[in-house]
Description:
Blueprint: H1 3-14, H2 25-32, E1 41-45, H3 52-61, E2 65-71, H4 74-83, H5 85-89, E3 93-97, E4 111-117, H6 122-126, H7 152-158, H8 161-170, H9 178-188, H10 196-207, H11 218-229, H12 231-244, E5 246-256, H13 259-270, E6 276-278, H14 288-293, E7 301-307
Parallel strand pairs: 1-2, 1-4, 2-3, 4-5
Antiparallel strand pairs: 5-7, 6-7
Helix pairs in contact: 1-3, 8-11, 9-10, 12-13
Amino acid sequence: xxxxxxxxxxxxxxxxxxxxxxxxxxxxxxxxxxxxxxxxxxxxxxxxxxxxxxxxxxxxxxxxxxxxxxxxxxxxxxxxxxxxxxxxxxxxxxxxxxxxxxxxxxxxxxxxxxxxxxxxxxxxxxxxxxxxxxxxxxxxxxxxxxxxxxxxxxxxxxxxxxxxxxxxxxxxxxxxxxxxxxxxxxxxxxxxxxxxxxxxxxxxxxxxxxxxxxxxxxxxxxxxxxxxxxxxxxxxxxxxxxxxxxxxxxxxxxxxxxxxxxxxxxxxxxxxxxxxxxxxxxxxxxxxxxxxxxxxxxxxxxxxxxxxxxxxxxxxxxx
Length: 319
């Protein structure tokens, strides 16, 4: 069957609900289509989430797919083990709890296809007690891995005024966060910030709604989330290790939702000629139709890297 026919059939079969639709799933399936002719395919998904992309890829590749999926979120791990139990029991799926930056510590072998989705999953956004969303009142947590680490509450209540200004400028790309930061520093003297509603309400009050359809707290919350999870540092450190773990001709797809993340991915892909090359000259963006259907796709960008075929230093795959 031709690619379009297969992809249409796959998407009809997986039938995602609007609440849990993975972003740019068709484009990711297209990116890995050239690997379909391989007799067996190993997949590494470093950001499993709720398994939307994995489900689609499993459907497309079928029984010849063997997979390792990783996530630092305990709920995502539980979901992987329960929802895909037959694959786990059949030893066609290995589930690993951890951050993809720990990839090299697990001796997982080489892969034909690898992917990272660097966005926050829908359940994380929709669960109030995770603290990712300004639309749901919950604790100022924002940790992807809730087993430890600093929370957004700690940063917001202990960082100096200068540190908060730099954080929101550098990670949130907010040109002038001064009035909001000054208000935060003033208000926390009386009562420490503890909830997402408190912070979002302050930002609304001080900054107001400047862009139609975009909550004024959007970039502030994103900056705190990036800081809490060191997301930019993790991508910069981990990406070269993932690229080296590709089999010759294998592909790595990275989906970003922030211009700083995308810039890191673009530069690493472009500046690694000894490892391989980017597949597309221009970044891949979602269709207007998808953006209308799923607002979380609006800032998405997809880049694909292909491993060079010159180094055939393959080793037995650990599984």
